[in-house]
Amino acid sequence: MKESDLYLPLKKFLEAQGYEVKGEVKDCDVMAVRIKDNKDQELDEEPIIVEFKMSINLSVVLQAVDRLALSPRVYIGLPKQYKLASNRNRKRKILKLLKMLGLGLIIIDPTVNTGSVDVILEPKEYQPRKSKNKIKQHLKEFHTRVGDPNLGGASTMKGRVTAYRQRSLAIGEYLKENGATKASIVAEQIQEPKARDILYKNYYGWFVKESRGIYTITPQGIKGIADWQKQIS
């Protein structure tokens, strides 16, 4: 299959809606216009521009962005045989990117006799919806984290020093030095109001409950603290 195989099904689809369609108009794969019945060739609306590619990639996205200088109604045309993404989350991100850029997406199946065209996404101005909860979480992490222990761009989630891990390290250090201690005393001594919750949930497996309200550190916790101290220092 070639990119040109996508042209005739799309041409028929647009002509059925009253457009005059032409291929390879200067640097555009497809241009479709509705013209008023007058000598001045005044447009009823902005022209439609479609850029064909056999797969979604940076090249076609950049081409489509360039075409926005000609019209706000720019689409990327892909064959139906191409799988847009390997999983639903990636597909959602691709569509979100196209929305943010103000681009449309058309899926074309040239293998059927009449051709099949599905408009997946219409080009329009993107208005991002801000997530108050997410920005609140990010700011909380920013303000509660002590210092700047991570090298931006270098760490993974597993190897990232978070505010929660810093709190767990402080609790572990206290228990390593003082032995089994009541959670309320740990909270008071290291001034950590979340100490009881951290000990109870034991997210990293560093702590163990010896008796009611009393916790101590595990061998895994001692090793974990030592490993993280090497990374932070």
Descriptive key words:
233 residues, 8 helices, 6-stranded mixed β-sheet, Dna-directed Rna Polymerases I, Ii, And Iii 27 Kd Polypeptide, Chain: A, domain 1, Arc Repressor Mutant, subunit A, 9 strands, alpha+beta, elongated
Element layout with pairings:
Elements: H1 7-15, E1 20-25, E2 28-33, E3 48-52, H2 58-67, E4 73-79, H3 88-101, E5 104-109, E6 116-121, H4 132-144, H5 163-178, E7 181-182, H6 183-189, H7 195-201, E8 207-211, E9 214-217, H8 219-232
Parallel strand pairs: 3-4, 4-5
Antiparallel strand pairs: 1-2, 2-3, 5-6, 7-9, 8-9
Helix pairs in contact: 5-8
Please describe what this structure looks like.
- The protein has 233 residues and is α+β, with helices and mostly antiparallel strands.
- The chain folds into two domains: 3-121, Dna-directed Rna Polymerases I, Ii, And Iii 27 Kd Polypeptide, Chain: A, domain 1, CATH 3.40.1340; 159-232, Orthogonal Bundle (Arc Repressor Mutant, subunit A).
- The protein has helices spanning 7-15, 58-67, 88-101, 132-144, 163-178, 183-189, 195-201, 219-232, and strands at 20-25, 28-33, 48-52, 73-79, 104-109, 116-121, 181-182, 207-211, 214-217.
- Helix 3 (88-101) links the parallel strand 4 (73-79) and strand 5.
- The longest helix has 16 residues, at 163-178.
- The mean pLDDT is 85.
